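Annual report, structural modelling task.

Input specification for the flavin-adenine dinucleotide complex:
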Amino acid sequence: MIGRGFPKAPRSYICPSCSRSFKLQSRRHATAASPDVYDVVCVGGGPAGLSLLTALRSSKATSHLRLALIESQDLERARTWNLPPDQFSYRTSSLTPSSLSFLSQIGAWPNVDTSRVQPYRHMRVWDGLSSNSRISFDALTSEPPIASMTENQNLSRALITSLDDLPIISLFDKTSVADIHLGPPLSFPAESPTSLDLSSYPHVTLSSNHTIAARLLVGADGVNSPVRTFAGISTRGWDYDRHGVVATLKLPPGTGHSRENPQRVTAYQRFLPSGPIAFLALPGDYATLVWTTTPPQATRLKALSTEDFVAMVNAAFRLDVVDLNYMFTLDSGQVDELEWRESVHPGNKADLGGETPQHIASVQEGSIASFPLRLRHASTYTTNRVALIGDAAHTIHPLAGQGLNMGLADSRSLASAVEHAVLHGADIGNEIACLDRYNEEMWMSNNRMLGAVDKLHWLYSATSGPVVGLRGLGLRTVDALGPVKGWFMRQAGAL
Amino acid sequence: MASRKLFALPALVRVTIARSARPFSVLNRPPPRYEGHVPLNAFERVTLAAGSAVMSLMNPRRGDLIAALGETTATPFFIYRLRDAMLSNPTGRRILRDRPRITSKTMSVTKLRALPENGVGRAYVSWLDREGVSPDTRNSVKYIDDEECAYVMQRYRECHDFYHALTGLPVFVEGEVALKAFEFANTLLPMTGLSVFAITRMKPAERIRFWNTYLPWAVSNGLKSKDIINVYWEEELERDVDDLRNELGIKRPPDLRDTRRSLREHKRIAREKRDMMGGLRAD
Ligand SMILES: Cc1cc2nc3c(=O)[nH]c(=O)nc-3n(C[C@H](O)[C@H](O)[C@H](O)COP(=O)(O)OP(=O)(O)OC[C@H]3O[C@@H](n4cnc5c(N)ncnc54)[C@H](O)[C@@H]3O)c2cc1C
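The model returned the following structure:
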């Protein structure tokens, strides 16, 4: 069905300069006006885009579709990404069990280097302003882990490797989208009986000046999605006036949870007034940090010496907020302040039997970075012949670590909608015949997730007044109310 | 998808909420956390607070009762607020690190008398001399559980005499109440506020003066000025009093002794005049 009327062009990698694809096109069509047509053109080779293509290729029904990927970065670098076992990328995400099962289903998980993945079964969450309200989540050893910490690059590499083993797709990497427009109206009389009305097909002009047309154009092109702009889809949302500071933390040699007792590996999150700080174990003596804080504080953190940065991180999991606020006013000397405050409250020093993370010893060089945090939700994920997935469709506060998982869920859902359409002989670019299924399945559930995480952010940014008291009460009540507890654990469980 | 995701997640088995402060009875009182510490349970705390409040109203000279009242009402909230005020300030933090104590040993009265005329130390010692008190007349903190907060309370108490020196308010009930109102506005320690109830023991004229002059002074200066708990008095002894008062944003209140003296003078003159006039009429 799909692609009928087209000379079946041999599928090939067009890399790096896309010259091969260009030759094919000029061979087939004399006029520059008739571009190369693909069933699916995906803009953006992040986790969302790559997993969509892998899903489409790995399913029998959709494996024959003509697929193209446009990515501005060099994917060869992602394919050959390799770090020694004592170094970790700071862009690390926790993958939920449902993300893992999707990745296994499309055959990508076996290509992930699992020696670099750290599952955890325990979680400790507490309030920086009333430290006796804390909540613990513990999974039995017979149950799947709460989530698995995975470097984004480890996942991307696995997805690319999986695609390598599958029927070929057209790859335009190191190429960005220069323009997207609709095709010209069909000339009358038609040039040939096989020519197709391309007037509703999005035409993507690449930075290489080459144009390709898409039966279905997928925007997996991140927060500032050009595809979304082309489709005229509006977004709703706001900036949080917060930055997420990330870093790879080093623990004292031989103290990593994962080595001693893999079953005890615990994720920690403390809600400070500016935002939560999270400590997520990595294999061996490493952990990853995600610290949500104000832009000036993020700037201060990045300007500190390594020793003082380490002291700030250790302080942020133990000291009172008043001490932290004071330490944020200093250009240096955090080490000394921490030492003094720990001597005043020796109880904090013992790390309370696993209730707070162990002291970190150092930070991997060059691993401290920060990102502005925002909330965005596209008013719809689909229009005629266009679908948005991943961060192009929604951007979320990282406090529940859901961003990447939501992108993978989008891929799974869109791939299954396309599969359904193909099996029923429908046009995969048609909204009613195909795309609505995806939009209906994902939009509401993502909207709920965005709302819940946003509310948690505002709830915990209150520093005083009844909200703080109610928060503590809230944590205690969570336990008593079954459904609420389930909801809360779902939010936090995927940190 | 959302519901599938829900069931895909592990059935988490245990959610625990830990609470730090455990109640105890008289039989299993926990060990003291610092020298002189008497751990109280909630019931004892409330009883002691109520008892000492009533008793000290009846007898404001019982310093020990006022001390007990101050400590029992300062926990668990207000003393932490005061400590946090110190922890937010560089000098306050330095005081908490050094933990200086003010006693007749650390504050030698003879040395203080040799300091410059309008200096803080000289004002302090002349205040001690005028009121006939010594740096050692302060009770030790007993009922505050946190060891650092106990020091904060002790520091506040030992600095109290400097507040008199700084404001020039005298030690008798009227001056004391005005200073307490100032301290309440500045430190928010409840006991300082409660002490204001001592106005019930004032004469009507004093009470009017308090409402019209001293209370407005105390409230506006106490709220507007910097946290006086963060003054490192030991380092300010040679500082000019007016200079320090300016830095802290405190205006000097009308001198109570002068006011009283001039009021007495007024009364005497009025009486004499009346007597004279009476004498005239008698003629
Ligand atoms: C501090 C922080 C912590 C996070 N922690 C977690 C976590 O713990 N768990 C989790 O699930 N998520 C987490 N996330 C979110 C997660 O990283 C993102 O949701 C995820 O990377 C989105 O994937 P994506 O494929 O949609 O977009 P991206 O990864 O942004 O990929 C978009 C791709 O499109 C390409 N592109 C863009 N424009 C063009 C163009 N014009 N032409 C060609 N190519 C283009 C880009 O080069 C890029 O490769 C976190 C995010 C932050 C900021």
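DSSP finds 15 helices and 20 strands in chain A.
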